[in-house]
Amino acid sequence: MNAVYYMDHILQLGDTYPIGAPWVRGSRCDHMLVSLPYPYGPDWEICNFADGHIHIYWLLPITSAEHDYKIEHGVEALEALFEKKGLEYWKIHRKSVV
């Protein structure tokens, strides 16, 4: 699904997009956020090779309300809210932080 979406949209850090339905049954998360892998730290974000490096981002499932908050206030504000409220990203059935 993400690869198909990327064919028509150049996804960048901080982008969000709808996935049309909850990412798993019973989840409130129906959007994706292209984000840094914050829980794993900067050592996991950059993968170095002899002739260069790549940056590793992750797709974080978010709710419609979180997506709307990001549109209104910006990605930094949304990520700050995640930090403040202690986003439990690993919980499939988590409530929105908004």
Can you put this structure into words, describing what you see?
The protein is of the alpha+beta class. The protein has one domain. It has four helices and five strands; from the N terminus they run αββαβββαα. It has helices spanning 2-8, 42-45, 64-73, 75-85, and strands at 16-18, 29-35, 46-49, 52-55, 58-63. The strands form two sheets. It has a three-stranded antiparallel beta sheet with strand order 1-2-5. A two-stranded antiparallel ribbon has the order 3-4. A hairpin with a 2-residue loop joins strand 3 (46-49) and strand 4. Helix 3 (64-73) packs across helix 4. The longest helix has 11 residues, at 75-85. The protein is globular. It starts with a helix and ends in a 13-residue tail after the last helix. The mean pLDDT is 90.
What's the overall geometry?
A: globular
Distinct helical segment count:
4
Mean pLDDT: 90
Give the percentage of residues in beta strands. Answer: 15-25%
**Total number of β-strand segments?**
5
- Report helical residue fraction: 25-40%
The value of Rg in angstroms is 14 Å
User: In terms of per-residue confidence, which ranges show pLDDT below 50 for 5 or more consecutive residues?
Assistant: none
Q: What is the strand arrangement across the widest sheet?
A: 1-2-5
Distance between termini?
Answer: 26 Å
